[in-house]
Amino acid sequence: MKNVKHFLLLVLILSSLTFVSCNEYKSFSSASKVSQLGGNPFLYNLSKGMLKDLKNNLIENGLKGSVKNMNLTTPLATILKTPDQITKFKTMLNTIYMVPTKKMDAQWGNLGTVKDLVSFVAKNGKKFNFYSK
Hints:
The chain is mainly α. It has helices spanning about 1-20, 40-60, 75-80, 85-95, 100-105, 115-125. The protein has one domain (about 25-125). Helix 2 packs across helix 4 and helix 2 crosses helix 6 (about 115-125). The radius of gyration is 20 Å and the shape is elongated.
């Protein structure tokens, strides 16, 4: 009986240490990295997919240097600089996430960071298939 109590006590201690060492949940508004969104599977997968799509779009358009160190707080103006780059990216968003072009055109000036863009697509997109890639 004494061994069972010690075993249960050991299990309790190990369990509590495991839960204490887990990452603390960060809200979308305070997150700067996709990995901080693990508590919200939709925004985690959307952010992860959109960053991947954005990086691929930039590389396809010869802007490989813009891809380095990109995260949720990266300003869009620093990575999409010309009207042609913006148009190609909007077309890609419309194709992949089915974001209405008129809404995107109307709101583009209000989107400052990658996080703003993810939030916009989450609200206005119509297609989210994270498992097809």
